[in-house]
Amino acid sequence: MRIRWLLAGLLSYLGAFSQQAAMPDSILPQMRWAAKEGLLDKYYPRDIDTLYGGYLSTFSYDFQPVGDQDKMIVTQARHTWSTAKAALFYHDSSFIPMSRHGYYFLRDKMWDSEYGGFYTLVSRDGRVKSKIKEAYGNAFGIYALCAYYECSGDTGSLGLAKRTFLWLEQHSHDPMRKGYFQHLERNGTPVMRTTQVDSRAETGYKDQNSSIHLLEAFTALYHVWPDPLVRTRLQEMLVLIRDRIVTPHGYLQLFFTPDWRPVSYRDSSEASILQHKNLDHVSFGHDVETAFLMQEASEALGGKENKATMAIGKKMVDHALRNGWDSVLGGFYDEGYYFKDKPGCTIINRSKNWWAQAEGLNTLLIFSELYPHDPLHYRDKFVQLWKYIQTYMIDHEHGDWYEEGLDNEPQRKTALKAHIWKGTYHNFRALSNCIRRLEQSN
């Protein structure tokens, strides 16, 4: 009887909480709390590694440090970026030393002083664990260094951002076919795909994910260093993503051969397709994220009214809403696929990961302002998505967001809260951007 009473009380609370979360006029204060008290204050300074430098990477569901705390360039760069942007967003100089702490680790431990470029993975104390370097990780290095330079004025960080860009230019950029090689040997030589490589591996392919984050990094770099070559590469990546990587349906093709032939398994058996789905599926989260990143790049280049970019971005958002949106609870599913013998786009992974929902918030709010009368009702979807996040994704007890929504994956409630692929970058960027827009509209 007591259990039934407790369950009834819990359901009543969740119902009232969901109704409150759905009210548009309550979203702004909720987001302010979620960004600061619910996210940043849970990580910083808790994850500052005062022993070896940089940031601790792995925390349990209740924010206890666990594991060996290996450090990846992506995580270390993202924490450096988040603390720098928090200093700027809140006009709070206490975040600057936290960001500087990350910059020093990037400079002193993750940068290869002999061959250049950032290592991908080191141990907690900075010993190199992987000599393969990636364009993706180096892109986030640039992104973080630019943010730290913005908040601190430290020209050393800008100098390292420039060196990283030029290292990519020398080693990763493909001057013949354009774009960037993702995987590089320690000395910068691109890793070529051979017949010995597992068919499910990404090795030797060009890809959308490194491409969109190179676009993001070059946008940030051009803002602080308006160099002609940076502008050229920014424009090149924008056109490449918009006109080649985005498919006619309106979603991103994930992987390509070096000469930009799509890696597709659509003509294979369903078993083979699912076996190789890491290389070939519809990623709704990346699509809504890229719509924002393309618009941001276009604005940096001075093309606020770039109709081609806006049209493709809208096509991507609309495709994600029509094919990957949960019309009952809200939220973007993780993966879909166009099977040749099935109609439409089939959802092959119903998980709703945290970063896709964060990127969805940001993009939906932007598109609600750009197209206020669109029949897809972007504003209503934004409100519904925030309700979903408040109900199924934010951990109101311990802080931060679960890695996946609890509606489909309730076991995530006690899973790791942070690891080398999960920190504050997606959440804080989305929340701070949304807060800024909502404040301007009030």
Can you summarize this structure?
This protein is mainly alpha-helical and 442 residues long. It has 14 helices and ten strands.
What is the fold's blueprint, element by element?
Layout: H1 2-21, H2 24-43, E1 71-72, H3 73-90, H4 95-110, E2 121-122, E3 128-130, E4 133-134, H5 135-152, H6 155-171, E5 183-184, E6 206-207, H7 208-224, H8 228-245, E7 255-256, H9 270-275, E8 282-283, H10 284-300, H11 307-324, E9 335-337, E10 346-349, H12 354-370, H13 378-393, H14 425-441
Antiparallel strand pairs: 1-2, 2-3, 4-5, 6-7, 8-9, 9-10
Structure summary, number of beta strands: 10
Considering DSSP H and I runs of 4 or more, what fraction of the residues is helical? 40-55%
Low confidence ranges: 1-22
The side-by-side strand order for the widest beta sheet comes to 1-2-3
Q: What is the radius of gyration computed over CA atoms, rounded to a whole number of angstroms?
A: 21 Å
User: What distance lies between the first and last C-alpha atoms, to the nearest angstrom?
Assistant: 48 Å
Shape descriptor reads globular
Proportion of strand residues? 5-15%
Average pLDDT: 94
Main sheet characteristics: 3 strands, antiparallel
Given the helix and strand composition, which structural class is it? mainly alpha
Query: H/E order of the elements?
Result: HHEHHEEEHHEEHHEHEHHEEHHH
Number of helices: 14
